Structures are given as C-alpha cells and as structure tokens.
Amino acid sequence: MSVTHGDDSFRSAIGEVAAILEDYWEDLREERLPVTPDLHPGDVRAMLPDCVPVHGEPIRDVLADVQRVVMPGLVHWQHPSFLGYYPTQTSPASVVGELLASGLAVQHMMWSTGPAATELEEAVLDHLAVALGLPERFLSTSEGGGVLQDSASSAVLVAVVAALYRASGGRWREHGTEGRYRLYCTDQANSCVPKASRIAGLGEPTLIATTAGTCEMDPSALREQLAADRAAGTVPAVVIASVGTTGTCAIDPVGAIAAVCREFGVWLHVDAAYAGSAAVCPENRWINEGVEHADSYAVNCHKWLLTGPPCDAMWVADRHSLTAAMDIRPDFLRNQASDSGGVTDFRDWQVPLMHPFRALKLWFVLRTHGVEGLRAHIREQLSHAALFADLVRDSPDFELVSHSLGLVCFRLVGDNARTQRLRTDLDATHQILVTPTTVNGRYVLRAALGSRLVSQTSVRNAWALVQEIAAAIPGERPAPSPTPPTAAVGAPDVLDR
Q: Does residue 326 contact residue 348 with C-beta atoms inside 8 Å?
C-alpha cells in the first residue's frame, strides 16, 4: 500500500491534508478564490485519468490532483460570498471527529454492533435537545428519542412512515396506503416533502393555503381541509410544518397547527432544517413555540451548528410508532440485546440498514465549542444578516422583501426582468452566489448568511458587487414604497405582510 511507507505514511498524509484544508480555509476567508468555477460540462472529466491505474500511485500524487483538478472545479459552499440556498458548514473539530469516525469504520446499525457508538449518539442527541430548548418528550429517557439522519429529507420520509403506521393502527405494514391517506404542507415546504410523499405511496401532497400576505401555513385552512377530507373518507395522516422555509425563512405557526393536528389525531412533523439551530440562543426560543406538541422534529446540524455534512438531528416523541413501522428482523439481525427490548437499534429509526458513526463529529463540535461558543457563532451570523438587510434598505434602487434570521430576500425596484437579469449577471462574475425565489408573484433574490468565514468586511464587499452589477442594468427605477423598520436581530421581518 503506497500510503503506509516512507513519505507516504498515513501520518504524513494526514498532515498534508490538514495543511491543504488550513490553506483552503484561509484562501476562502481572504476571498482569494471565486465562489463558483468558470467551467463547462465535461471540463473536469477531461482532466481526470481514463481508468484505474494498473499499479498504485503515491498518495501525494493523488493529493496533487485534488488541488490541481478537483478543488478549482468546486462550488465553495464555505466561501463568505456563497449566499445561495442555505449554508452548509464544517469546522476543524468536525473534521477531526469525521476523520476518527472514518478510521474506526464502526457501523452501529444495532446496539450489539456498536454499543459505545449507539449510546454516544443517544447522549449527544439528548444534550443537543436540551441546548436547543426542545421538550423533554424528545429525550431518550422518555417515550421518545433522537437519531442522526443524513438529511432533513430522510427525516421527513421516516416521519411519514411512522405517521402512516400510527394512522392505520399498524394495518399499513401489510396493506400499504390503500389510497386512503394524505400528507399536508404548503407550497413553501422544501422539495423533500413532496418527494417523501411520492416515495411513501401517497402521491402529491395536499397543499394548504398560506395566510394572506405571508408564506406561513394558515391553521384555519388546514382545519377546513382536514375536516373535508375526513368527511370524504380520506384519512389525514401527517402534516409537515416548516420552521424556516427555503424560500423566505417563513416560520409556520406550529402551536396553532399542532392544535388542529391534535383535534384530528394527525401526526405533526416540524421541519426546522435551517432555522432550528437558532434556538441554541435563548433569545431565539420563540421559534420553538408549539414544538412541545409535535410528534417529530428535525434540524440540520450541518447548516448552522459547525458540523460537516451529512448530519441531521431528528427527534420523535413516540419511538414505538417509528420502530414498529420500520422493524424487520431476519435471523442474521437477531441477538440477545435486541430481543430484550432494552437497547436502541438505530436500524429501526431510518431507511438504510447501515448506520455510520455520525455522532462522533457532532460530539467533537459540542465539546470543543460548548453552548456559549455555538451561541456566539449564531449571533455573529445574525448580525451579518442584519447588516446586509440594512445595506439593502438604505439603497434606493433595491427593495427589502424580507429578513428572517440569517436570510435576507431582496430585489431590484422595477419589474421581475430586472431582478432576473441581476441574478444572471451576478452568476457570470463567479464572485458571488445568490439563489432566487418567488414571493407573491415577484422574482426575489435570497442572500443566506451563515459561513463561519464571513466578516462585516465580506458582507460589505458582497453588497458592493451587487450594487456594481445592478448599476449596469437598464430599466425604470420607480421609488420603492416605504418599508417598516427592521425587527430585532433574529426575529422575522417579513415586509410583505
């Protein structure tokens, strides 16, 4: 093995990787790299070897190609001017934990295949639930508990499966959906929600209207739809509420939605993939309102909690519905510990059989940063978003559409074509990335602040570039309508209401 001798020893190779990452992060921090590569489809493939080599190559040669071919062809998600989608982050502590997990190569699908890994995951999720101010019913010491999924998409799918099991009294396991069950969400829900609905055999979800002027689910419309469906013989099975929608970071009124779900006996899953992390700060606990009545809840640690992807923390209040829905136990998966019912087997909490040791990297992050370190990180990101929102508000050629937590939605004054042109021209610079959404028929650009490498200077630099590109776009520039003052940092400031 070329990675075991001389200069290619494992120890020296890891040292070189650490140096590459440290230099990379510094280049990003100083904005010495573009955000997106200037490439055409097939450019990277043309630089790669045609086949696997007959004889192994030194790992230093592979690392050289990573720097020569791979890294210049990446979209740099940790770049300070990567403002698209929502942030995906990592940190040195997470990388170290990931390295150890990779080297240990533990697969703890059951307690018996990884006792320490299983119990560490339970502990880490309990600790994180407490840090986020989540209800005790989600703790492993209750009837519920937590699991680390790969993504919020998997969390939604698993929640839907558990909801179908409960709604059918277990019949679903043998007879499927029988065309009787429904999933409910708004058109603002993440794309993973309709995908989960299809995979689970429910077809397209039933869309619930949003409250006039907002992007938040209307609890009255939900109640009317559930009542109508039940009267027609349909079984309402699961409602997906969003705490931080993808488009505008709108936060559904979970408390009012939960009351409707309790009235109709419907499973409520709260998708807090982005915004949920903000609750680590006590002043942001308003986003948890009503979560104590949810049946399941999920937040992506790889967005705001300095943990590398994939790492989604999911909690359920009723573990039995989940494990009873997912449990399949052939002889090769039977063992004394599992049969005793006294241990957690994470294979019953997810779609795959394999369960990697994700808890280790999250444990490293929580231990090395501590609650106060995580709070400081979130508060800093919120201050950057507030600065960006202020810069938009102070620019007469722009309109601030919304500002909620770390997401700022804005547009050029005028028709949609001007903002669409702005997005195209910004993309062409490769120096910044923003992504679009539509709000009340208007084309809007989203700027999501969240990288640990962002600074006040980088925010101002990004906005200066936006202004520079916008200045070259022709078109009428009518005076924007007056906007109300910004809410306190971290609280929603949706100006369309």
A: yes
Burial class (CB in 10 A: 0-12, 13-18, 19+), 344: buried
Residue that the structure tokens 């699961």 belong to = 238
CA distance readout (Å), 400 to 119, 214, 386, 482: 47, 15, 12, 10
Overall average pLDDT of the 342-355 stretch: 96
Q: Which of 492, 147, 496, 493 minimizes the C-alpha distance to 287?
A: 492
What pLDDT score does 475 carry? 77
Over residues 342-369, mean pLDDT: 97
DSSP labels for 414-478? S-HHHHHHHHHHHHHHSS-B-EEEEETTEEEEEEE---TT--HHHHHHHHHHHHHHHHT--S--P
| pLDDT score of 212 | 85
Least confident of 175-184, 416-425, 487-496: 487-496
The answer to whether the CB of 374 falls within 8 A of the CB of 131 is: yes
CA dist 452 and 495 (Å) reads: 28
Q: Count other Cβ atoms within 10 Å, centred on residue 354.
A: 11
